[in-house]
Amino acid sequence: MSGEHETAYERLKERLATIGDLRSTTSLLFWDQQTYMPTGGVAGRAEQMATLSRLSHEMLTGAETERLLDTAGELDPSSEEGALIRRARRDYERATKLPSSLVAEISRVTAVAEPAWVRAREESDWSLFASHLDKVLYLEREAAEHLGYDDHPYDALLDAYEPGARKARLEPMFEELKRGVVPLIRAVAERTAEHSRDGEDRAAPLHGEFGETEQEKFGRAVISAFGYDWERGRQDRSVHPFCISPGGADDVRITTRFDGGWLAPALFGTMHEAGHALYTQGVDSDYARTPLDGGTSMGVHESQSRLWENLVGRSRPFWSHYYPKLQEVFPEALKGVDSEVFYRAINVLEPSEIRVEADEVTYNLHILLRFELEVALIEGTLSVTDLPAAWNAGMEEYLGVTPKNDASGVLQDIHWADGLFGYFPTYTIGNVLSVQLFDEAVRAHAGIPEQIREGEFSVLLGWLRENVHRHGSRYYPDELIERATGRPLETAPYLSYLNNKFGELYDLG
Ligand code: ZN
Description:
The chain is mainly alpha-helical. The protein is 63% helix and 3% strand. It has helices at 3-35, 42-61, 63-72, 80-97, 100-123, 127-147, 153-161, 167-196, 212-226, 264-281, 298-312, 316-329, 339-345, 363-379, 387-399, 425-444, 448-453, 458-467, 477-485, 492-505, and strands at 233-237, 243-244, 246-249, 252-256. Helix 5 (100-123) runs antiparallel to helix 6 (127-147), helix 14 crosses helix 16 and helix 16 crosses helix 20. The protein starts with a helix and ends with a helix.
């Protein structure tokens, strides 16, 4: 870089660092609100967060940002400087393409839509939410037009969460998944029907008395072994578990929710959030306070949480090491439950109404349904009035389940009330990618499954650090996946993982 470009680049970095500080501080306030803030603080906290968001938005969209970006010029994105400028320009363009009046309108409408959704769900009454969703949709379509797209307005929304993802590329992925998992689900359902005639309830061992303190202690031991760094992290309780990093890689916090009568939510929730946290803690420290800090997309983030939760945490090698320890912690509740029975209990495949309770196999059909419906809503081929019927028809077609009411059907997720159209597919991208990355790690280090059997995770974590974590947001998802695995995102490894695992679990031969 020549002198003028270099000065502009340094000044741009300083400006982006300030914007980053404002955003991290906002996330610290959010964390506090979800964990310790007294309920009386809600109104004041909303003002504080709005002020910080406004300041960071103003700095990002200010003329000075554009001037510095232009003067710094475009550099080869394969260099760190070039990648930083590319990310900064992307943020700047997305932020400036949306008129501030539209941004304000979206936050006003969703702020009203969310409590309306809560009430509609409580009363299972679609009519209480429908008109709000109409408004949200109208604004989301407006936003898509301002952001711009080549093929489909949905692409503009999707791109916010998954840079580079396109509807046209997700459709074949979902089609392959559907073709692959629907027969598996049918075959398992037939097996389950045979066994339930004998009165078998595979998931029963997870229900019983599981003290919260013991659950917490066990979860902490597991994620410590994964490599979660407590010097740069902490764990607290909240209603909805999440992972947040108010201080870049050096302050990555997770939250958990405990149920004293059910082991699964905290156990797997802790591993899941720790998976997110390991990604964030592993980002190169040189990227602190730059746009390259933090994960590259929601989908890649979810691949990390799912990898630790499912590929490690729901595997037989993992429990061959940890089950005796778990039994020591809960001798009463797990009396007479051997490790194989426990392994089957944590891997029950059963179509159900609720996405967040879905197993590894049926989960993606929940996402497929939402993807198809939100595309149709955005393009206007499905009306909000017809949405509940379309939802139920899709549930019946894909999962053979008819929701008992709208509360446990079309009203179950908060995403649409919050205007998060385009977010759902990132869950499935994460699932698919988790297997592709895990397979690649095992190809590089064949001893990983054996190490997991010994409660040893450093080689796996080391591979992820080297190939995924340390890069932060330097590469876009497609580039990162290609670099890490030598191939684009592929559905086949994921399908063969599911077929092998559940074929064996359900004796499908
Ligand atoms: Zn997650």
